[in-house]
Amino acid sequence: MRIADAVSSYSDDEAIFRTRTQRVWMGILLACLLAFPFVVSPYLLFLGCLIGIAVISATGLNILVGLTGQISLGQGAFMGVGAYTSVWLANQFALSLAVTLPLAGLLTALVGVIVGLPSLRVKGLYLAIATMAASVILHFVFVHWESVTAGNLGLNLQHAKLFGMELDSDFKLYFVIIPLALIAVTGARNLLRTRIGRAFIAVRDRDISAEVLGVNLLRYKLLSFGLSSFYAGCAGALWAYFFKVITPESFPLEVSIFYLAAIIVGGMGTILGPILGAAFMTLVPEMLKVLTLLLEPIIANAQVHLAPMKGVVFGILIVGFLLFEPHGLAEIWRKIQRFFRLWPFKT
Amino acid sequence: MSDPILTLEGITLSFGGLRALNEVSFDMPEGGITTVIGPNGAGKTSLFNTISGFYRPQAGRVLFRGKDISRLHPPKRAKLGLARTFQNIALFRGMTVIDNIKLGAHSHLQTGLLSALVYFGRARREELELREKIESKIIDFLEIDHIRNLPVASLSYGLQKRVELARALAIGPEILLLDEPVAGMNREEKEDMARFILDLNQEWQMTILMVEHDMEMVMDISDKVVVLNFGEVIAQGKAAEVKENPEVLKAYLGSGDVADMRRRLGAENASGAG
Fold this sequence. Notes:
Shape of chain A: globular
Structural class of chain B: alpha/beta
Strand content of chain A: under 5%
Mean pLDDT of chain B: 86
Radius of gyration of chain A: 21 Å
Oligomer: heterodimer
CATH class of the largest domain in chain B: Alpha Beta
Order of helices and strands of chain B: EEEHEEHEHHHHEHEHEEHHH
Strand order of the largest sheet of chain A: 1-4
Radius of gyration of chain B: 20 Å
Mean pLDDT of chain A: 87
Low-confidence stretches of chain A: none
Strand order of the largest sheet of chain B: 6-7-8-3-9-10
Number of helices of chain B: 11
Largest interface: A-B, 31 and 41 residues
Number of helices of chain A: 16
Strand content of chain B: 15-25%
Distance between the termini of chain B: 29 Å
Number of domains of chain B: 2
Order of helices and strands of chain A: HHHHHHHEEEHHHHEHHHHH
Number of strands of chain B: 10
Helix content of chain B: 40-55%
Structural class of chain A: mainly alpha
Helix content of chain A: over 70%
Largest sheet of chain B: 6 strands, mixed
């Protein structure tokens, strides 16, 4: 039980982790992340990497949708831009991941800023449609710019190179993906406690009064689009290195919807939300798969009969979240914490 | 009181056929409290929106210390030192009190994207300096230290108004525009707010322009009163003079003429409150 946190300086009050307990738990979490690939099966390692990539992209989308309030259905296509850029650079110039990843991010950021231009005039659903149109256009480019993307055939990619080392296994990639995910999340958290993060939230909550207080709407909306796409581009590049093959069908509109659902289920506008949401959205379909396997001995041909049910169950779970906890998994986690803060004296 | 800090010259603003402001001219003496009064629909809030840059008047100029600012965007005007509060509270509901206030200082901060992402060097230094300044000057002055880390949505109406004032102060304003600062408050809250406004004017040497309906307060603290009716200035001067002006009495109490009353109600319906 913790009674209060006695901070004695403004710098302590502004810290992300204000108590020793929080810092200790954070250390334990980091240790677990470090130990994870040494103890788990290749299948779980695969899922771990996938979640890491999803966390980066979801955190980026959360900056745009959750913090700045600009709805976007372009995240999947942005990841595609990042993926194609990194694959093209790696194949043409045999560049290391340390070069292709930031370049993929930057190019995607540029595309994101251009796609974000309509946000200066339109909001809400209209903006969602505008970004969806952009993602259709990008898909068209992926299919038809054959000299770069090889069209519907897709591109193959060699193992990623980093500092002279070949990242030829999920195990090695894990140690690239997870640190990058940590950096991405830390960046977003830091952003929140500076003028830029505040300006984003101000644009979301009341754009008119933000403007009177000196926030340039144009600059911050585009900055948010750029930053969010940078995250998407990096996530897309990692995705390409992870699967080693990309086609235009790797990044359909459903990917954008997947990420939008992830931040809604996780909790929009929070830092923890996109992390939990990305994990949830990645794990639940897998868990349902495992569940149908377990039912096999009880129900004959469970896999055949229940496989189509997975989508339905998944959908029901999401609707359930929207109904019963609109603030998402992050809010559930906060409630659990609050419970244990005063436990056992008050429940 | 010396040269005017803000001068309005023949501001004319129309929405379609409705003329919200017609040839409005007055100036605000530096270091004074100027109050704009007038019946509903007289154009007071339109006037505020013109000064802070939301509306572009069809004719006329806004001069700040003799410089024409009529074409500046709202964020630029904020940087010059024009701060305002809103008639209906316009706080950022997703942020805590301290973050709302910090946002007011937005245009004075320099932190770029990269240093914000790592929260190192300038970003950190600037944030802590800002926090210290806000705590020692604004939060202390407005007596809101007990609520600094609460989300604004959980606060009472009076406190929200106070946080909005704090946020405007964080701009470091030369002119503070207050749109109905005590509307909807109880007597105690009103007295607190009046005291803050007087302190700001006398101790912080801040020039204040406000719109207010509470006549008792207007008459008590204003150095200058400007009366608007149907978008026109019908009287201006010291509070006591304005109170006796027959035009003003007519605007508020009516002339007893039914046609005139119809005209007034029509204008109120057309322009909404404000």
